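User: What would this chain look like folded?
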Amino acid sequence: MSERQEYLDKLKAKLDEWDADIDKLEAKSRETQADLQAQYRKQLQEMRETRDDAMRRYMEMQDSAGEAWDAFAKGSEKAWHAWLEAFEEARSKFTSKG
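Assistant: Here's the prediction, encoded as structure tokens.
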């Protein structure tokens, strides 16, 4: 397996993990009191936006080749760390309320 494919597989696994987290937290939000549901919806929206941004980047990377791949790989590492931090921050706010 190429380095490129390994990298893409790693990113896809993280996106799948985020989808599962969002699904679990969304189910949890339906069980909460009405006053917390608005806060949960806001956190879920932030998590989805982070996931959607990352998914767009992943799809762009998947379609790239050669020099374009190299450029994406160099620029994406910083972006992925920012998305990871944003997602984890949103998740921690969400789970600390329950």
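The chain has a mean pLDDT of 79. If you want, I can go into more detail on any region.
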